[in-house]
Design brief:
heterodimer, A: 7-stranded mixed β-sheet, B: BirA Bifunctional Protein, domain 2, 2 domains
Chain lengths: 815, 343
């Protein structure tokens, strides 16, 4: 909302420059977002004296003037004004000055007008932007000093030359600050200067007006007060310059004197006012009621609306004439033909006004104020003020009396402030007299009673309910800058310990970064089809995804059940931009509907997932050989290393070569029979759908569950390191070529018992020397113990391993 | 053992000859040589030394000199041999040291939002704050009611908040949290004061995606509740944070504002230099804060007369954009490698 500096200064005396005022307001809760300098640019316009006037030799209507600007020489000026005469003091725009005339900017240059040199321009008021007057040049008084800047003269004469608009971001609680008087009240509190509210003499309730208009309120909770006055014989026409300047300064367009008057008073005191053409109000009646379903109404901007139920309607004796608190109707609008005006000053319910305005898609200056809550007592003042102004501007007369219907009398709220509570909240001692002054300036009428100050909440502060609200008022006016650093800052009562999950997550970040993975952040919202497609693919469960009700677009309709679609989009984007190597990871929440597992909000399951994926060459290009594409064992290796880093060595891995719509083959990981993760190759179909050149492999984990398992592990206890040498043996076993190696490894480990410290596969071979349909699997065995091992012992264990493999897998020791 | 000096001389002569002709051209041969002649347990020379006490007294000195010479001879040959191939193996290398190094992997990276978050949480952890988290799906009570949002508050309208469907019903039940403040409520409900924590997380707004707005962003929330906590403590904490995050010289201001769940409320702005700006820069809002509203403490069953507290919240994207000079918020979620590689 814009506030005019000049206008504001009418209501409070202060010596602040616009910049200082903006700072003071910002630091007391009315944030000034922008300072706009307005008004005519009068640089280069000086007071001159016309020394002589001669006719122009080549033009009847032009005159040649010599002008004294207080310099050594007189300057010649060609002037076309009928009223120019010798000895006048006049404003002269000199060479280099810029004048704003209407929309155009005129730059004053040395010129020849019909053959005669002109070195400047004697100006009319409109050419200086001071008024619309173009009847002749502006003639200044004898007080004008020859050669002084025109702006100095005008200021001395008490004329406003320029203005500054302060654009204030008003927080939702500050209904009281949506007007010049409201902002001035803060300034008066800050400056400890009185608030200068215009005097208005409100007529006593009743009088002649009641014979011309009857008001009935059918919904007293939605319209607590309705004040009406009538101004007759109004001549509707353009507003005077002073009024236009006021409205233009705050960014409003002048419409006519009646509408401008209602806007002026609204911006003066915060009460929205509406003017009806009295002669278009049927049966001299105003009825305030709620709309019923599907009523039609045309607002004064010419738009037709089908109203929802419950909109507050202002009706005359026959039909609706306005939407209460939002906008008037076309059928009762004031125009040039209007001569009698009915003025409405009312109070409408904030939440209902907001609901109606939103439903109709209309936001007006009036709805903006009603939504926040206007003063519940100001209506007679504001209505009287605007009636007088309309009468003055339109040469009309105010019908004596006032109609003031207020089925709900405003309640007076009292609040006590304990002085001891102020430092408990703010951490500083504020002198009692300062507290009293601030509360008094803001209209709280404070009275001392021992250590308590009892206050009355003014009707323009619907936001003040509690003692803490008063403390905030004191703090913002006293100044947050006055709140100093505490004398001491004690240690927190308990020293916080980093959560295990954060420590574990940090290790995973470090691992993945060290292995070339880049972290990504993807959208939590997916198109519905995509969410459905991925909902069961990687969680080994089948839960419906969670849909939004009011998403702004179809591409963000459903919450992600998996991080995979997000990563595939990122891979696709980067592949399109020439990136062959794709290694990404993400931590993020996923969601599904669930009747169980509702850790937080019933019916919804939400947990954190870790996803990492690879596609393309496994290593950077090098000069000593070609680089293979990543395959399943690259991602599986990363998973194994990661799990070993986290000491999670006992997860059950269940392989499956059955394709799904999303995966070609995959391994499911379980801990205590619960799904914790999946390692997979993406299906060809999905790879093609994302236009990716190389196979994609990914691993996804229920990070919430996995981290919990890590947390629950017993703390590490050191096992002494053996000082004795290790013994290595290799064996190669020939088995059926279809035989999976994993189970063989498990058997080797079991048979090797405690002496077998490590087993690796160092070769898998089919071909020459091996019978068809068979393969040779070579194991590298490493034995150790906390003593020197004898050859015999080791021979015995190796023999046991060979025997076990032979028995279980029909394996034969390779010759 | 039967021996005499003459026998020793004969044996030594034989060994001397053997030592002289030994070809120690590999480490294995040298080791074999060392064990044969000098090995502590089986070496021939140490064995001969052991015979000295059995010699007649007058011969012992000569025998000692003889064997010392022999040992010296063996050691010299061995050292010489070791020296030989040590020099040989390093001398002959022919290597192009200008070739690029072999990289087993690319450098990975963390997302700039993670980095900014880590920097913020790190500062608060140094100030004694613990970390808490909460769900991204929230209910009305935690997201609004307990935080003192009135029933008809505009934030509850469909326009700003992303509501989600209730199973089976198709009506509005829960919502995507609009701020991290519900974590305050969950934490206070779960324990007793004192509290001193921050809660980082993702929050949602029902907005179209443009260069300056995204349907989600990240926040860090802070909460301190204890006896004797005042606004001076809040200001002290926030000043400390701004200096740690933006530098000791940061120009900041703390001005009154409004939030339903804090009172008094204040916002922190920092001055951001912009060379092209007519004023040379402008104030940028970085966080909202205030004293915890007594209604909030009452809602979670904490005695608001005995305990006071403060809370604050800040976006991550905005300071990150300022810091890195990013002018389009969407780039955070596009995850172009050429962008990610810069962090």
């Amino acid at each position: 909302m814009k506030i005019s500096y000049n206008w504001l200064s009418k209501y409070v005396e202060h010596e602040l420059s616009p910049e200082d005022l903006a700072h003071a307001l910002t630091m007391s809760g009315l944030e000034v977002e922008d300072i706009l300098h307005l008004g005519p640019p009068l640089d280069g316009v000086f007071v001159g004296r016309v020394v002589s006037v001669r006719p122009h030799p080549n033009a009847d209507r032009l005159k040649l003037c010599d002008v004294d600007l207080g310099t050594d020489e007189l300057i010649p000026v060609v002037c076309g004004a009928p009223n120019v005469a010798a000895d006048q003091r006049v404003p002269v725009a000199t060479i280099g000055a810029h004048l704003a005339i209407g929309e155009k900017v005129l730059k004053i240059k040395k010129s020849k007008i019909r053959g005669q040199v002109s070195m400047g321009m004697i100006c009319a008021e409109d050419e200086l932007g001071l008024s619309d007057d173009h009847s002749g040049i502006m003639v200044l008084s004898e007080n004008a000093v020859i050669g002084e800047p025109l702006s100095d003269y005008l200021k001395r004469e008490g004329q406003e030359v320029s203005d500054t608009a302060l654009d204030i971001a008003i927080t939702p609680n500050r209904a009281d600050a949506t007007s010049h008087i409201g902002v001035a009240r803060d300034v008066s509190a800050l400056q400890n200067a009185p608030l200068l509210r215009p005097e208005v003499s409100i007529p006593p309730d009743g009088g002649e007006t009641t014979q011309h208009i009857k008001v009935e309120i059918q919904c007293p909770d939605l319209c607590r007060r309705y004040v009406a006055m009538i101004v007759t014989d109004v001549k509707v026409g353009p507003s005077p310059t002073w009024l236009k300047l006021r409205l233009e300064a705050i960014g409003l367009r002048s419409i006519n004197n009646v509408v401008d008057a209602t806007n002026f008073v609204m911006y003066e005191c915060g009460q929205p006012l509406h003017a009806f053409d009295y002669d278009r109000i049927a049966k001299q009646r105003i009825v305030v009621r709620e709309s019923v379903e599907e009523e039609e109404f045309t607002t004064l901007d010419g738009k037709n609306h089908t109203l929802p139920e419950g909109v507050v309607l202002i009706c005359d004796g026959e039909r609706p004439v306005a939407i209460g608190g939002v906008m008037g109707g076309e059928n009762s609008e004031v125009d040039e033909t209007t001569s009698n005006v009915l003025i409405e000053g009312a109070w409408f319910c904030p939440s209902r006004t907001r609901r109606s305005a939103r439903a109709l898609g209309i936001a007006t200056d009036a709805s903006y104020r009603f939504e926040r809550g206007v003063d519940t007592a100001i209506q007679p003042w504001a209505t009287t003020r605007v009636a007088a102004l309309i009468a003055e501007l339109g040469n009309g007369s105010v019908t004596p009396g006032i109609v003031d219907v207020h089925p709900r009398t405003p309640t007076v709220n009292r609040l006590d402030l304990r002085l001891t509570r102020v430092p408990k909240i703010l951490g500083i001692q504020i002198p009692r007299k300062d507290i009293l002054q601030i509360l008094a300036s803001l209209g709280f009428d404070p009275h001392e009673a021992g250590n308590t100050i009892s206050c009355t909440v003014p009707t323009y502060r619907p936001d003040i309910h509690l003692e803490i609200d008063l403390i905030e008022e004191i703090a913002r006016i006293y100044g947050f800058d006055q709140i100093l650093k505490p004398k001491s800052s004690p240690l927190p009562a308990s020293v916080p310990v980093a959560r295990p999950i954060d420590l574990i997550r940090e290790r995973v970040h470090a691992y993945l970064n060290g292995h070339g993975f880049r972290e990504i952040y993807t959208n939590s919202l997916l198109p519905d089809e995509q969410a459905l497609q991925f909902s069961q693919a990687v969680t080994a469960a089948d839960y419906p995804p969670v849909r939004t009700l009011n998403a702004v677009s179809r591409s963000m309709a459903t919450l992600r059940p998996s991080l995979l679609p997000g990563m595939l989009n990122v891979m696709q984007h980067n592949a399109h931009h020439g990136q062959r190597t794709l290694r990404f990871y993400e931590f993020g929440h996923v969601f599904h509907l669930s009747e169980h597992e509702a850790a937080f909000v019933e019916n919804y399951s939400e947990y954190e997932v870790l996803l990492f994926g690879i596609s393309g060459p496994v290593r950077p290009q090098s000069w000593d050989g070609s680089i293979p594409l990543a395959d399943f064992f690259d991602i599986k290796g990363d998973v194994e290393k990661l799990l070993s880093l986290l000491n999670l060595n006992s997860l059950r891995m269940e392989p499956s070569v059955e394709p799904t719509t999303i995966t070609a083959h995959h391994i499911t990981l379980y801990a205590n029979k619960k799904w914790v993760g999946t390692i997979a190759r993406l299906s060809d179909e999905m790879q093609a759908a994302h236009d990716l050149p190389d196979p994609v492999f990914f691993a996804t984990f229920n990070w919430t569950r996995l981290a919990l398992i890590c947390e629950e592990q017993p703390p590490t206890v050191y096992t002494p390191v053996s000082r004795y040498p290790v013994v290595e043996r290799d064996i190669a076993m020939v088995v059926d070529s279809q035989q999976p190696v994993g189970p063989m490894l498990n058997k080797v480990r079991r048979a090797g018992q405690t002496l077998l410290k490590n087993v690796d596969i160092f070769d898998i071979y089919e071909g020459e020397g091996i019978a068809p349909g068979k393969k040779s699997v070579a194991f590298s065995l490493r034995f150790g113990a906390n003593r020197t091992l004898r050859d015999k012992e080791i021979d015995h264990v190796v023999q046991k391993i060979v025997t076990t493999l032979s028995a279980q897998f029909e394996a034969e020791l390779r010759a | 053992m039967e021996t005499n000096l003459e026998y020793l001389k004969t044996v030594a002569a034989t060994f001397t000859e053997e030592i002289a002709v030994a070809k120690l051209d590999t480490p294995a041969k040298s080791e074999e040589f060392r064990i044969r002649f000098l090995g502590q347990r089986r070496g021939v020379i140490p064995k001969l030394f052991k015979t000295i006490p059995h010699l007649p007294k007058q011969d012992r000195r000569s025998a000692g000199l003889l064997l010392n010479a022999l040992r010296k001879e063996a050691q010299t040959v061995l050292e010489h041999a070791i020296e030989q191939y040590r020099v040989k193996s390093t001398d002959t290398c022919d290597i192009d040291l200008t070739l690029p190094g072999r990289r087993s992997q690319w450098a990975g990276s963390r997302h700039p939002i993670t980095l900014a978050l880590a920097k913020i949480t790190d500062i608060f952890e140094h100030m004694g704050f613990a970390i808490a988290e909460g769900p991204e799906i929230e209910d009305d009570w935690h997201n609004f009611t307990a935080l003192n949002f009135p029933a008809d508050h505009p934030a509850r309208d469909m326009q700003d908040t992303l509501f989600i469907e209730e199973p089976g019903e198709g009506r509005a039940g829960a919502m995507m949290r609009t701020h991290t403040s519900p974590v305050q409520i969950r934490t206070m409900m779960a324990g007793d004061p004192p509290f001193r924590l921050i809660a980082p997380g993702r929050v949602f707004r029902n907005e179209a995606i443009t260069y300056k707005s995204y349907c989600l962003f990240h926040q860090v929330e802070g909460l301190v509740v204890d006896e004797g906590v005042t606004m001076a403590d809040l200001k002290h904490t926030l000043t400390g944070f701004a200096r740690a995050f933006f530098g000791e010289e940061v120009k900041m201001r703390f001005r009154p504002s409004f939030f339903p769940f804090t009172e008094p409320s204040g916002e922190v702005d920092i001055w951001w230099d912009l060379p092209d700006h007519p004023d040379g820069g402008r104030w940028m809002e970085i966080l909202g804060s205030g004293m915890v509203h007594p209604n909030v403490l009452d809602a979670v069953g904490i005695d608001s007369e005995r305990y006071t507290g403060y809370a604050f919240g800040m976006g991550i994207e905005r300071p990150a954009m300022l810091r890195y000079g990013i002018d389009d918020i969407r780039i955070f979620y596009e995850n172009d490698v050429r962008f990610l590689a810069q962090f």
